[in-house]
Specification:
Length: about 400
């Protein structure tokens, strides 16, 4: 799919700018954060000030007014540099829900301050302990009391809550017995996290294998103003659906960046490392796996671009975004494994940084949606096979 010479030139400029910014944050910066489970405050601030984190915010609200294709290029370059864009990527894909479904007052209130970096919207409150990716079965409730809603329930694996000012929350406003379609009865809310914390919201960090700042959330009569509904009451699933497609495309872009990071690293090492008086890259046992991973990453990148273009054009892209995410996550994981094998024992040393990226890219075959659920989607919605669950 052709995006035009002018847009491609703009994307090339964006890539160059992001690379220059990332060059100031060496891999040791990210390794130190990983060891300390810390947040990349300086990096996120600079990424915001340069306008990259506000890429999807319309220009009238202080953003760059770009598309998911450009946003994906930004995240890809962060990954390829050795960084971890998971610290801030949600601000991009949650943004679509607010831009497309928020009312004028919400846009005027939140978007300029997000674009400037004064506040952060980097958290997406959907997943629950007992429902996982079965979003339409979530149990957290929001009951209306006059001009506000009272929220009770629990969420899990909600990232960056401790480092965000706002969160997009999905809660049940009608019981399953009151609805005719599984996707009905859910409502999306903007939550002021600073106000909520300690006033009905309890946050408990999860000790995990990667530095993704994930937490459990407990809601105990948390009050949210009715004016904080995003979109229509009881129709919130469709609000977050836009965000989910964007999320899959942007995560896939990160995986492409991870894959290219591993290929770059393996290629350099294979040229430099000499064993038995010859560079190991001369051996087909080393050369061919690198070449195969390159081919697979490039193929996945084509699907990511296709999905992003469809999304930006407002066309249906459920299949493409799911396929892109699956192919890119699998290709990046395979490239990581190849990079480990190329470096041999050195790959386990933290100073080479490969093991950290290896852990980080593994996540994306599980979240934000598992590979099996993507295959189920393709089977049912693309191939017309019987519903499996």
């Amino acid at each position: 799919m052709d995006v035009g010479e002018e847009r491609r030139a703009q994307i090339a400029d964006i890539r160059q700018g992001v690379r220059a910014l990332c060059a100031k944050y060496k891999e040791g910066y990210w390794s130190d954060l990983d060891s300390d489970k810390a947040y990349p405050t300086e990096f996120v601030r600079e990424l915001t000030e340069a306008g990259y984190l506000g890429a999807l915010i319309p220009e009238q609200y202080g953003g760059s007014g770009l598309g998911v294709l450009e946003a994906g290029a930004i995240l890809e370059e962060v990954s390829r540099s050795g960084g971890n864009p998971g610290a801030c990527h949600a601000q991009m894909y949650v943004m679509g829900a607010l831009v497309r479904h928020g009312n004028d007052a919400q846009k005027e209130q939140f978007l300029p301050e997000i674009a400037s970096g004064k506040i952060r919207l980097q958290s997406f409150g959907i997943t629950e302990p007992t429902t996982g990716t079965d979003t339409t079965s979530l149990k957290t409730t929001a009951e209306r009391h006059g001009d506000h809603f009272v929220v009770n329930g629990q969420k899990v694996w909600i990232s960056r809550v401790e480092h965000s000012d706002l969160m997009l929350l999905l809660a049940r406003t009608k019981s399953k017995s009151e609805i005719t379609r599984r996707s009905d009865g859910l409502t999306a809310f903007i939550v002021d996290l600073k106000q909520a914390h300690g006033n009905g919201l309890t946050i408990r960090p999860i000790d995990a294998m990667i530095n993704h700042h994930s937490c459990e959330l407990f809601f105990d009569n948390l009050e949210i103003p009715a004016e904080n509904i995003v979109g229509e009451q009881d129709n919130g699933f469709h609000v977050v659906l836009d965000g989910m497609n964007a999320e899959r495309i942007l995560i896939a872009s990160e995986c492409i960046g991870d894959g290219r990071y591993f290929i770059d690293k393996a290629t350099r090492y294979a040229k430099e490392r000499v064993v038995f008086d010859r560079p190991i890259g001369q051996n087909q046992g080393i050369q061919f796996p690198i070449a195969r991973c390159y081919a697979e990453i490039e193929a996945a990148a084509s699907m990511v671009e296709r999905a992003a273009i469809l999304f930006d054009e407002g066309r249906h892209c459920g299949a493409e975004s799911n396929i892109a995410k699956m192919l890119a996550s699998e290709a990046s994981w395979k490239a990581g494994d190849m990079c480990m094998q190329t470096h041999g024992g050195y790959s386990f040393a933290r100073e080479y940084h490969i093991e950290r990226k290896f852990r980080e890219t593994r996540l994306y075959q599980i979240a934000p949606i598992s590979t099996n659920l993507i295959l189920s989607y393709i089977g049912e919605h693309v191939l017309g096979l019987p519903r499996s669950f």
